[in-house]
Write a structure and sequence with these properties.
CATH class of the largest domain: Alpha Beta
Helix content: 40-55%
Number of strands: 8
Shape: elongated
Structural class: alpha/beta
CATH architecture of the largest domain: Alpha-Beta Complex
């Protein structure tokens, strides 16, 4: 007789959110119990310096559904999500920020969309946001750019409230700052049925935001990275090899043209300048050198892409309410 699969796992990454954790836990519990959903809550403490971990310890003693994972230091939201995804055992996995700006009342409908409408992933859309213009305007521009570049029709890529099938989170690798682009990673992994739901956005009740203006610069740099990784990550030679070959041929043809031109002048007894005196010689030489370097970069990229190195190695200091068999299963 096999154990019944748990309905839901809520993964909540956090950094210095001690005030909001008890209220968030109680809210999630009330919603899940009201709708008769079996559930677990995994809090991933991303190296908090306040009393967040002590609060999680107390909650885990009071409620067996609450589990905790603690990092030795602050690794970032992507690292916290990666470890939380690895530990999740529910049929549906929901991510939710711990600052109470995501509304747990959205959980039942997100679960229904995954189960009944067949979505692989559903992303929240904070249509009405309680954030300053300095945050909302760059976010709108960022999301517009991401929609155009990735061809994924979502209004809010970075919304923390998302729902996934369990096999989706087990099939993707979230690292660096890639939590913004999980829909892109999911699509690349073959999960193409991606939906969207308008969700209620709450005003921050406790503390302050942990993200500064640098997130917008990092966001666009990561967008370029994820586009390259999803399109050429497994075949870098297609990009660098093609560009390198093209540049080398341009430089080679320019050098041949200079040589033929010199011979033509000599054949007709016309005074000819030195080939090295022409700026085109150095341009052609530079093009051939750059072409060779790009080709070699593609070749080395192919070698690297075929090596299996786990980039997601994080030092976890403590776990709460996990069985020993679950922890062994989570290790790579």
């Amino acid at each position: 007789m096999t154990d019944k699969i748990m309905d839901l796992t809520v993964v909540s990454p956090l950094y210095n959110e001690e005030e909001s954790l008890p209220e968030l836990t109680q809210w999630i519990r009330e919603v899940c119990e009201k709708h008769r959903l079996s559930y677990e809550i995994i809090f991933v403490d991303d190296g908090s310096t306040d009393k967040s971990w002590q609060v999680i310890e107390d909650l885990s003693v009071k409620y067996p559904e609450v589990k905790g994972i603690r990092f030795k230091r602050n690794y970032g939201k992507s690292a916290a999500l990666h470890i939380g995804f690895r530990a999740a055992s529910g049929e549906v996995v929901i991510t939710m920020d711990a600052d109470l700006q995501d509304n747990p009342e959205e959980i039942p409908e997100l679960v229904r969309m995954i189960r009944e409408e067949g979505y692989d992933m559903v992303s929240g859309w904070k249509k009405k946001r309680y954030d300053p213009l300095s945050k909302t305007l760059p976010s709108k521009f960022f999301n517009l750019t991401a929609r155009i570049v990735t061809d994924i029709k979502l209004h809010d890529f970075n919304c923390g409230l998302k729902a996934y099938r369990n096999n989706v989170v087990k099939s993707i690798e979230v690292y660096g700052e890639m939590h913004r682009y999980i829909p892109v990673l999911a699509k690349q992994a073959g999960f193409v049925k991606i939906g969207e739901k308008v969700v209620k956005h709450q005003k921050r009740k406790y503390g302050v935001t942990k993200f500064g203006l640098s997130r917008f610069i990092k966001g666009y740099l990561d967008l370029m990275s994820v586009i390259f990784i999803t399109r050429f990550g497994k075949r870098p030679m297609h990009l660098f090899g093609s560009l390198g070959t093209l540049m080398f041929l341009i430089g080679l043809l320019a050098a041949i043209w200079l040589g033929v031109r010199k011979l033509w002048f000599l054949h007709h007894n016309i005074p000819a300048p030195l080939i090295t005196a022409s700026p085109y010689f150095y341009l052609s030489l530079t093009a051939m050198i750059l072409g060779t370097q790009l080709f070699l970069a593609g070749f080395l990229g192919e070698l690297v892409s075929r090596s299996s190195v786990d980039r997601n190695t994080y030092l976890v200091t403590e776990r709460l309410n996990f069985k020993e068999s679950d922890v062994k299963q989570q290790k790579p």
